[in-house]
Write a structure and sequence with these properties.
By secondary structure, the chain is α/β, with parallel strands linked by helices. The protein has helices at 9-21, 45-51, 64-76, 89-92, 113-120, 140-149; strands spanning 33-37, 56-60, 82-85, 102-107, 124-132, 135-136, 159-161, 168-170.
């Protein structure tokens, strides 16, 4: 269906599922609502919803093909607290029910980090968390600087070793 750039089973497991699950230990026990901007093929939200089924996930995705796929996955896996919003994130900014109503925001490879940081900020409750997966470790300091400029405070950086590539990424 051409939903992701990941093409081999090993890439899907390593760079899709395992990278997504690297965020799981960072989810607070009290997390109630998570928004995933540009959900695409469901990474990282779907793997996280599988390990934390009590959390309400809202997946925002404008592509009809990807929305159809996500709805199929949600039905098939019986993910009761996962919903898909078939929309561009900009269209949701004015909705009162969406404004400052999420504990955590996720976004993976949607746009440059400063741009996505500015997009997710209006959806987060005061004290909310943006889990930003930055890619190769050499880009971490730039990501930290970019997020600080958007109004975020970086509280933790966790390197993740990618067993298939031998380089580090950070969450």
């Amino acid at each position: 269906m051409n939903l992701t750039a990941l093409t081999t089973p090993a890439q899907i497991v390593q760079q899709g599922i395992l990278d997504s699950l690297a965020c799981a230990p960072l989810l607070p026990r009290t997390a109630g609502r998570i928004i995933d901007i540009g959900s695409g093929s469901g990474f990282p939200a779907v793997p996280l919803a599988l390990v934390r089924p009590e959390i309400e996930f809202t997946l925002v995705e404008p592509s009809r093909k990807k929305v159809t796929f996500l709805r199929h996955v949600i039905r098939t896996l019986k993910l009761r607290f996962v919903q898909v919003r078939p929309s561009r994130v900009e269209a949701l900014l004015g909705e009162a029910a969406m404004s400052e109503s999420f504990d955590i925001a996720l976004a993976r490879a949607v746009a440059p980090l400063p741009e996505i940081g500015r997009m997710v900020l209006p959806f987060l409750r005061p004290g909310g968390m943006f889990l930003a997966q930055t890619g190769p470790a050499e880009h971490v300091q730039n990501a930290i600087n970019d997020l600080a400029e958007c109004g975020f405070e970086v509280t933790e950086v966790r390197p993740i070793v990618d067993m298939g590539q031998g380089w580090e990424k950070s969450v």
